[in-house]
Amino acid sequence: MFSQSSAVPSAFFKRAASGAVQRRLASTKSLRETLQEVIPRKQEQLKKLKAQHAQTVLGDVKVEHVIGGMRGLKAMLWEASVLDPNEGIRFHGLTIPDCQKQLPTAPGGKEILPESMLWLLLTGEAPVEDQVRGLSAELAVKGGLPPYVEELIDSLPPSLHPMTQLGMGVAALNKESVFAEAYEKGIKKTDYWTYTLEDCINLIARLPALAARIYRNVYNPGADLPGVDQNLDLVGNYARMLGFKNEDLTEYLRLYIAIHGDHEGGNASAHTAHLVGSTLSDPYLSYSAALYALAGPLHGLANQEVLRWQLAMQKELGDNITHNQIKEYLWKTLNSGQVIPGYGHGVLRNPDPRFMALQEFCDSRPELLRSKTIQMVKKTYEVAPGVLKEHGKTKNPYPNVDATSGCVLYHYGLTQFKYYTVIFGVSRALGALTQLVWARALGLPIERPKSLSMDAIEKQIKASA
Ligand SMILES: CC(=O)SCCNC(=O)CCNC(=O)[C@H](O)C(C)(C)COP(=O)(O)OP(=O)(O)OC[C@H]1O[C@@H](n2cnc3c(N)ncnc32)[C@H](O)[C@@H]1OP(=O)(O)O
Ligand SMILES: O=C([O-])CC(=O)C(=O)O
């Protein structure tokens, strides 16, 4: 079951004498082999934490945490990434620019491959190119949809939001769950993670075909839908199945999907996957639930909302919009009691480095710099933080990733913005499913925090006064 190994060219072994190559050779293990090595070390680390530091205090629980969405409360274990309010996300310690330097790209490409990010998230190690090619090949082999899922998706009304369809398709795939099947037969707790891993890989492999089928049905009914090409990487296949041949868009999608993959554990989608998974619900059901958290406008759906808002502004004010006009439009939105989509964040207190990475992608391409929509996003960024500071409510007046992600898709012809959160959903699987593997490998328990009523809080306040 766990025999997949990367293809290692023979020339590679001939160079194995030097120390550098030894190190490289050591890292040409398959994903399963790497995890078999990494997991015992992490299990040992957890055992020590439990034995030696179970009572160490990490912070206080205040009334503001209980009534304020648990903001800032340190209450979850999450292995793959940690978010710093000022510098943003680090994946196993690597920033986005570090990942851009260290993680393998597609042949001839420049952007991080989501497979590289998945490998890093799962193992904590940056993969070498052969390992990533092996993983791409495995995902392509496993990328087809079972016929009953195709039939289910084809039977849905095209007016059903693409995110509703994605969640349904992912949930239906649980008929395939090797974890659920093995659990029913009876397996040891220490073996849970291996079956969970297989489900997670299978689900990540199938997401592009599922997401592309939804796109075809909703926006291009009757159009041909190519099968999975065994020679392409995950996003190469996704772009092809969506019907786009533009390599720049494919590269953008690779970057987009890689950097949206994980944002530590407390965000609503990742946390939902973790919570549902903690009941030993299988990865398909856990991730389906996560997708419905992602589909909220304060979370992943904001990328759809940003474009809707920007286009309404463009419609009202025309193409050659000035900074002052944007300022007035921002105030109009705020004064009508709405949020500025794409701005603010639950944790970040600076511009989101994912926003910056996507802006850099635009800056490196003259045709994107000429796009009126992209120019408008940039001008909004130049004005919005000042307006939001003056407005004085949001703790973070800066853009999050959703402020820019959709406008590039729009420029490249993927103009159906109700679809944008589906692309986010293809991406978030990388981190949310990684954590399910780790939760099973570490034997984490069912999540069950204590809740309090207001009366109970007041009673406790009186008792401690
Ligand atoms: C991938 C992602 O999920 S990134 C986030 C995507 N979401 C968005 O872009 C939607 C717009 N942003 C927001 O609504 C918020 O900033 C959130 C949901 C992201 C974070 O919420 P919080 O942690 O509660 O933010 P914060 O503590 O700064 O909120 C304080 C006040 O500022 C308001 N505020 C926060 N952001 C904004 C904004 N962009 N525009 C207007 N008001 C805002 C809040 O609504 C809140 O108002 P209230 O006191 O009347 O309830
Ligand atoms: O971290 C958060 O709360 C929201 C976010 O940016 C993400 O999930 O990508």
UniProtKB/TrEMBL annotation:
Keywords: Mitochondrion, Transferase, Transit peptide
Coiled coil: none
Keyword Transferase included in the entry's annotation: yes
UniProt-listed GO biological process terms: carbohydrate metabolic process; citrate metabolic process; tricarboxylic acid cycle
GO molecular function: acyltransferase activity, acyl groups converted into alkyl on transfer
Subcellular location: Mitochondrion
GO CC terms in record: mitochondrial matrix
NCBIfam families hit by this protein: cit_synth_euk, PRK09569.1
PANTHER family, sorted: CITRATE SYNTHASE (PTHR11739), CITRATE SYNTHASE 3, MITOCHONDRIAL (PTHR11739:SF15)
Family: Belongs to the citrate synthase family.
Protein name: Citrate synthase
Organism of origin: Neolentinus lepideus HHB14362 ss-1
